[in-house]
């Protein structure tokens, strides 16, 4: 079974993503900030990370940079309300596989997940 990690400081967003993953054969883990998220990435080695950008303690950009520096090839889908072009470009530069804007649209979520190994 594939493992998916949701890293977002908003409990309602984690709930929405968890419900969108119903029907997929995945084990879901959650983190409510970037520090906890990074610890779970290292300890759990998930098959996919759904990552918010703006969080307390450690933001999503730092996690993307750390993944790149550590040569960890874990696919990341960004889930953020920050849809500025330079933000999206920075996420792509650091290896994000897809970018979903909040609020998440189910069809866009399915398209993003379809490109990943689940």
UniProtKB/TrEMBL annotation:
PROSITE patterns per UniProt: RESPONSE_REGULATORY
Lineage: superkingdom: Bacteria
Keywords assigned: Phosphoprotein
The Response regulatory domain, residue ranges: 3-117
Coiled coil: none
4-aspartylphosphate found at: 52
GO process annotations (BP): phosphorelay signal transduction system
Name this polypeptide is given: Response regulator
Species this chain originates from: Carboxylicivirga sediminis
Source lineage: Bacteria, Pseudomonadati, Bacteroidota, Bacteroidia, Marinilabiliales
């Amino acid at each position: 079974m594939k493992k998916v990690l949701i890293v977002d400081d908003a409990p309602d967003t984690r709930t929405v993503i968890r419900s969108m993953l119903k029907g997929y054969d995945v084990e879901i883990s959650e983190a409510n900030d970037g520090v906890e998220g990074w610890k779970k990435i290292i300890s759990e080695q998930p098959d996919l990370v759904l990552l918010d950008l703006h969080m307390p303690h450690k933001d999503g950009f730092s996690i993307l940079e750390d993944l790149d520096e550590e040569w960890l090839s874990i696919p990341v889908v960004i889930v953020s309300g920050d849809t500025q072009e330079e933000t999206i470009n920075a996420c792509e530069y650091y290896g994000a596989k897809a970018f979903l804007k909040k609020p998440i649209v189910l069809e866009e979520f399915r398209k993003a997940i379809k490109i990943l190994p689940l």
